[in-house]
Amino acid sequence: MARCKFDVVQDGGSFSNAFVNMPFTPGFHQGALRIGGGCGYSDPSIMNAIPGYVEEGLAGINCTVVSGGTMDIDAKFDSERQATVFNPKSFMITIIPALLKQKGFKIIAASTTPRTGQMELGEEFGTLFVSEKYAIDFRQDHAVVFQKDAMEIVDADWVADVLPFLKVHRGWQEKGVKSCWWGIEGGGGTRKEATWYLEHGIHCIITDGSGRQSDAMAKEFREGKLLVRNGAGDPVPVDPSLVTIVPFLDAKALNAALRAQGIIV
Predict the structure, then answer these.
(1) Global pTM?
(2) C-beta separation of 171 from 200 below 8 A
(3) For position 48, what pLDDT does the model report?
(4) Are strands 120-121 and 227-229 parallel, antiparallel or unpaired?
């Protein structure tokens, strides 16, 4: 089984060459898709419907796919092995890249995750936990944990990694890598992520009907009320050319939107 590369990036530090060069890997399309969305407070009916939607909607993708990197862990004691066995407990937006790889998609699956507590190694082959129940998903190609300061852990800042990664993503776009953000469901962190991406000039696909902030942003966009900050820091309506709204569970519409942005070719 292929191993997952792993780095810890300090605030103000650099991402590794292996991470930064992912979109330029021979044999892969030079594209980079960032996926954002709800994890901890998501509607189960919505989460249960997403895997099939993702498989069909992302059909044909052959590039770098990045999300958050945590998976909800179910820990059970195996009496025969006399050890605790860890397995993914439920579907989360953050396991989409790993899910695609498991389904045979030819992608580079990667993640960035903020450190929000004391990291721990589990007893099952050193599983890396970043909180009491969330571990880094090892079923990907490259995982990054971002920390502001090893001596000062910021509790529950689940978007602390986004702006540092966004600088990398924007750099990819400037070098000709087709770039896009796709959001499903989500809370305040998802809205922040979408806003930051729009303010950096990267196209955002928002899934209407998936719940919470995705629905709110889609409604605001249609009403001309989705705001971002301009260079002077003033709130202004977003450039309409930077936003595509797709209906939840309409896989054809999602695939077409990704093709329009050059993510799928």
Answers:
(1) 0.92
(2) no
(3) 86
(4) unpaired
**Partners of residue 178 on adjacent β-strands:** 31
Q: Residue 135 is encoded by which pair of tokens?
A: 């571990």
Q: Are 205 and 197 in contact (CB under 8 A)?
A: no
pLDDT of residue 151: 73
Rounded CA separation 110/99 (Å): 12
Q: Are 43 and 55 in contact (CB under 8 A)?
A: no
Whether 217 and 243 have beta carbons less than 8 Å apart is answered as no
| Of residues 80 and 175, more confidently modeled | 175
Query: Residue 238 has which token pair?
Result: 């977003």
Which amino acid is located at 84 in the chain? T
Cβ contacts of 169-177, under 8 Å, gap ≥ 24? 169/32, 169/34, 169/66, 169/197, 169/200, 169/202, 170/200, 170/201, 170/202, 171/20, 172/23, 172/32, 173/32, 173/201, 173/202, 176/30, 177/23, 177/24, 177/30, 177/31, 177/32
